[in-house]
């Protein structure tokens, strides 16, 4: 019986929201949400959701509800969550996600019925026949639970069944049951929920390669055998350092030509941390390309992002030193990637955004050295999103940042810098110049010289310090400034001339040790009194 017919018969149609809007009543406006634009294009835009922030954080709920018309449980519908012990089913997390979707007029993609990961060991230890029965029972109970609910639109029936070279993954499923478990899983799923769209899902299958071609061949074979497969999921866990996959649109199209739908199921685009404006821009381009590739193919039904805020992402836990893969930052601020997804769904860059960001605050300089300084300012606001800032000295750009702080490098020693900041948005609008600030770089230690500081000895109330200066090229003079906390006073020094200004102590060469040959070094020392306890404080060296 069709879902519509079943709903009419049960009277459920009047109370259950219809989640898929194919024909919009009104066109979306440029400033609309992601879901408004997606609905206007007949597509879904979705996010994976985690049960804990969904229950506990209103900012998380607000964005999940307002920006997305589709959600996927990040973990709550997996086998270890739904059937941790044989025939003991727990649906609290899955039901929580379904209720959220119903309340917010969203469709749910079920993830996932049969996978080699996050499947309890009791399943893995079964013999072949018992394993097949357990799979059938699991699918019947989990997919069957939501079969009468039109909010549940689709299922990942099998997940990640291929190795990278395109051979079948040598999982416990394959070892016990051979590749027949795949067709069986689809047949069991169709029996459990006749109306759900049934998908095969995998990663590294976005472009045309050996793995995606193996997937293509499998789908073609399953279709030819009459196996009920409706859809292919391209996970799309990308990384900017590995480049954008080749022929994504062509790949989507070839699956569509087999008569199945395609969806981007888990997109995130990670980067080596820390973020910067350049990496953000590359990431935004990748998001644009993926969304546009899907929009270009009629049978590509939509895009699910694997979470939306960098506050909750699997990436840093799995890839050390990588992150920032999503479209909102940890504080729920929209990133350039948000604008990219938005504008791609809206059909290009937004023509009517002529509003510039507000003027950034006056920058404050800190950690000023001979060749660098850190500037921090009050952030701008924008009607859409601030995408970055540029720092200028007159007309010369000294640096850029995605955030309201930048560390300038490559400055000239003993030079006054008067700088201002300009904010920009994705449409290219720029703010007025901030108020200027002036800082002066310190003298430094001589061209190519590196100071190495150490505490030689310490005692209650004082310590002896030493600096060894090693120079790459020859110099005839040198200077080093040590800046300590208030509690330190230098009472005696040797092999140097000392001048002090507040807590900054500048040591210049003595008459006899200014000349240091290339590769040579010279050392000076001092005694300091100090009112603290524990280890003597480390100075800022410049
Ligand atoms: O719930 C426990 C918690 O009780 C415990 O204290 C904590 C300690 O590590 O672990 C928690 O479980 C974690 C679970 O996520 C929920 O946060 C697991 O360790 C962790 O392994 C699990 O990771 C999930 C991963 O799948 C498992 O393989 C990620 O959140 C989830 O984003 C990720 O999603 C997969 C898709 O399902 C399939 N495609 C790839 C994608 C990314 O790996």
From TrEMBL:
The GO annotation for biological process reads: xylan catabolic process
Which InterPro entries does its entry note? CBD2 (IPR001919), CBM2/CBM3_carb-bd_dom_sf (IPR008965), CBM2_carb-bd_dom_sf (IPR012291), CBM2_CS (IPR018366), FN3_dom (IPR003961), FN3_sf (IPR036116), GH (IPR017853), GH10 (IPR044846)
* Reaction it catalyzes: Endohydrolysis of (1->4)-beta-D-xylosidic linkages in xylans
Q: Which UniProt keywords apply?
A: Carbohydrate metabolism, Glycosidase, Hydrolase, Polysaccharide degradation, Signal, Xylan degradation
**Residues covered by the CBM2 domain:** 442-542
Q: Name one GO molecular function term.
A: polysaccharide binding
Instruction: Kindly indicate whether the keyword Protease belongs to this entry.
Output: no
Q: Which residue positions are annotated as catalytic? A: 266 (nucleophile)
Which residues fall in a compositionally biased region of kind Low complexity?
347-356
The reply to whether Metal-binding figures as a keyword in the UniProt entry is no
* GH10 domain residues: 28-344
Native source species: Planobispora longispora
Name of the protein this chain belongs to: Beta-xylanase
